[in-house]
Structures are given as structure tokens and as C-alpha cells.
Design a protein that fits this description.
It holds the Pfam family Spot_14. 32% of the residues are buried. With 247 residues, the protein is mainly alpha-helical. The model has no long low-confidence stretch (mean pLDDT 86). α6 (144-161) packs across α7. The radius of gyration is 21 Å and the shape is elongated. The chain is 58% helix and 0% strand. It has eight helices and no strands.
């Protein structure tokens, strides 16, 4: 049985899981999507906050049936992932894929630091990141939910394994590793970054500030979208039930 990560309400993980659960309920409730085709999506939108995603939906004159299929596809992408060369039109597709890729990279980095720390007592020479990457068996996750959980598990394992983080200060970040912010110079800095990032994603507030700039903008936009679409999916479900009762 898959272990469920503990998350704090309003954290990124909690917001994404709430969206997935709400859309799943919507999908199980809406048995005849055609009943939604004449209903404009603006009727289920939360109060305006100047959001560009909202504007795009209105500009496309979307109806509730189209929104139903859109968020249903988005749920599948988030929980099952993307196939090779797959063409998709789900909202924020690039942000989802890029975030998934980045989390996979950071999960591998966490595993590398763990392996390096365990070898400190045997040798002062660490394997290069490229050498480690070629040697280790690491299966990247193809969906954002899976990538987030894998990252969280790898960092948790790293924290439990590194008993003396101060030893990481003697080892610089390799050019072979994924790029980090300029202030990240040693493996100790990376270790701290990974711990903070995990804590923010699982326990942070809606206005989280991630120590990784590559994820900050993408996940912030995704989080706002999940919140809005969760409300809309819930409203759509209620509106569909009203339509069904009328017949």
C-alpha cells in the first residue's frame, strides 16, 4: 500500500490533493456531461481577483461541459503523468511538466548527497554526480504528484542518513549537478535547501517562498490555479445536481 505523506492544510501538496479529490467527486457525479453544454463557465467562477487563467476561460467563452473535460484531463495528467510526445491542452501544461522534471532532479540530488555522506568514512573522494547518475538506478516520476512524493521521500531518507551535515561544507556543488541559486555553493547548502523545500511543500502556507527559484514561480501559479479550479469544480457539481433535479 502506498504511503500517504502528511501535509498541512493550505500547503502545496494539500491544495493539489484537494483539487484532485474534488475533480474525482465531480467526475463520479456528472454522468451526463451534455447537460452542462449550455451553461457558461462564468456562473461557477469565484469572485474575480485579476487572475489571467480566469480571463483566458472567459475569453474562450467556455461552457461548463468544456471546463468539466478540461479539469478531468488535468487531474489525469497530475496523477498519472504524460506519455512520450503526447500533445495536451490542459492548463499550465508546461508548468506541470517543468515542475515534475525539477522535482525529479532534486530527488536524485538528495540520493547523491546521501550516498556521498555514507562514503565519508571510507574515502575523502566523492564520486562525481555524473558517475553516480550513470551508476544508480533511478526511475523518474512522470506525474507531478508522484514526483513530489518521491522528492519528499528521498529528502526524508537523506535527513535520517546524514548524521553530521557539517561535513558537507567541505564539498562544493559540482557543475554536473542541476543548477541552483547563486548562494548555493556547497553540498551543505544543497542539503539545507532540500530540507527547506520539502518543509515548504508539505507544511508551508499558500504564499510559500521556496528556496529554489526554478520552482517558485511555477508552483505558485499552479497552487493558485488549483485553489480556483477546486472551487469551480465544486460549484459545477452542485449546479449539475440542480440541472438533474429539474428533469
Amino acid at each position: 500500500m502506498e504511503r500517504r505523506l502528511k501535509s498541512v492544510e493550505h500547503s502545496f501538496l494539500a491544495v493539489m490533493e484537494q483539487f484532485l479529490q474534488t475533480v474525482e467527486l465531480m467526475d463520479s457525479t456528472v454522468l451526463i456531461p451534455m447537460k452542462l453544454i449550455d451553461l457558461p463557465v462564468k456562473e461557477i467562477m469565484p469572485p474575480a481577483k485579476g487572475d489571467s487563467t480566469r480571463d483566458a476561460l472567459l475569453q474562450n467563452n467556455m461552457n461548463m461541459r468544456a471546463f468539466y473535460f478540461m479539469v478531468k484531463a488535468m487531474r489525469i495528467k497530475l496523477s498519472l503523468g504524460y506519455g512520450a510526445n503526447e500533445d495536451s491542452s490542459v492548463p499550465l501544461e508546461r508548468e506541470i511538466q517543468d515542475s515534475c522534471l525539477r522535482l525529479n532532479q532534486l530527488a536524485l540530488v538528495a540520493r547523491y548527497i546521501k550516498a556521498s555522506a555514507l562514503s565519508f568514512g571510507l574515502s575523502n573522494e566523492l564520486p562525481s554526480f555524473q558517475e553516480f547518475q550513470n551508476r544508480v538506478q533511478f526511475n523518474s516520476e512522470k506525474c507531478l504528484l508522484g514526483a513530489l512524493k518521491k522528492f519528499a521521500d528521498e529528502v526524508e531518507s537523506l535527513e535520517k542518513s546524514v548524521l553530521f551535515p557539517c561535513l558537507l561544507k567541505d564539498h562544493s556543488v559540482s557543475e554536473q549537478m542541476p543548477a541552483f541559486n547563486e548562494d548555493v555553493k556547497t553540498l551543505s547548502d544543497v542539503f539545507s535547501l532540500l530540507k527547506k523545500l520539502r518543509a515548504e511543500l508539505l507544511s508551508g502556507s499558500p504564499n510559500f517562498e521556496l528556496p529554489d527559484s526554478k520552482l517558485q514561480q511555477k508552483l505558485s501559479e499552479l497552487s493558485q490555479t488549483f485553489v480556483e479550479y477546486t472551487v469551480m469544480a465544486r460549484n459545477l457539481t452542485a449546479r449539475y445536481e440542480e440541472e438533474v433535479r429539474c428533469f
